[in-house]
Specification:
Elements lengths: L13 H10 L7 H17 L7 E3 L1 H14 L16 H12 E3 L8 E6 L5 H15 L6 E6 L2 H16 L18 E4 L7 E4 L4 E7 L11 E4 L9 H12 L5 E7 L3 H7 L1
Parallel strand pairs: 3-9, 4-7, 4-8, 8-9
Antiparallel strand pairs: 1-2, 5-6, 6-7
Length: 270
């Protein structure tokens, strides 16, 4: 029996709190980000009078996805290496928007997301974490997650982050060897930097890196993640995967990421 989700536009959650700060100007943001924040708040207001266009807000679902990061993942590079992966404030809005907004059927409202940030905002680790969550911890059996890039090296930037956190000690572990792999939760195929697939044992799921144009047989993706899309020389692969995502009967997501160019880079380009 299909279960219809309930709506609960109650106390501010991380997603709503961030949207309120953006809308009020307490967080400096671009025009498109403001539109996204205002849309979130507008639709929450609509829910007070009943489902808005058949949409439902399920903050408890996004809370599970957000909680996955610091519970099982450790930061592997930078000044905070070794600490739990506590989401940044904007991460909360992204994950909340993707996982918390649902249609009446229970399916995710958004089938695609665009992440454009400056460097140093943990965009690639966030995308890798979303991929891992959808691979093995979102309750989707035989989930397929693909990190794609213009070439294998580009695809491996994001995929490498996923492998690194799987090999890193779980937050709170007493032993550095207490990682997701020795626990039997994941199997990493390939040694060192030559890893090419992560498998989630319990659900029979997988996370792979693919170069642009590299074919797979009968893909049924739960998620397709493309970081550094400014490196793509054509959009053929992205459009092909987008069509595949659109045909998936369950929850499926395409997440695209790129860096916002600096002012200096824009000046050089002009």
């Amino acid at each position: 029996m299909r279960r219809t989700p309930t709506s609960s536009p109650s106390a501010p959650d991380p997603t709503t709190a961030w949207a309120q700060d953006v809308a009020a100007g307490r967080i400096v943001s671009g025009e498109l980000v403001k539109h996204a924040a205002e849309r979130h708040l507008r639709h929450l207001r609509h829910l007070r009078d009943g489902p808005a266009r058949g949409l439902h807000w399920r903050p408890e679902i996004s809370a599970r996805a957000l909680g996955f990061l610091p519970a099982l993942l450790t930061i592997t590079a930078g000044a905070k290496a070794g600490e739990p992966f506590v989401p940044l404030a904007w991460h909360g809005f992204v994950i909340g928007s993707l996982f918390g907004w649902r249609k009446a059927s229970g399916r995710m409202r958004f089938r695609a997301g665009w992440l454009e940030t400056g460097k140093g905002q943990a965009k690639s680790p966030l995308m890798a974490a979303v991929g891992l969550y959808l691979m093995g911890w979102a309750g989707i059996p035989r989930s397929e997650v693909y990190a794609i890039g213009q070439d294998r090296a580009t695809a491996n930037v994001l995929f490498g982050d996923a492998v690194a956190v799987c090999r890193a000690p779980i937050p709170g572990a007493e032993d550095d060897s207490d990682t997701l792999e020795p626990r039997g939760e994941v199997v990493i195929r390939g040694e060192g930097d030559n890893a090419w697939k992560v498998e989630h044992v319990e659900t029979g799921s997988k996370f792979r890196a693919l170069a642009n144009g590299e074919a797979v047989s009968g893909p049924r993706p739960t998620a397709v993640l493309a970081d550094e899309i400014h490196e793509f020389k054509a959009n053929g692969a992205i459009e092909t995967w987008r069509r595949v995502i659109a045909k998936m009967p369950g929850n499926a997501l395409m997440l695209l990421g790129t860096n916002t160019p600096s002012l200096a880079a824009l000046e050089r380009a002009t």
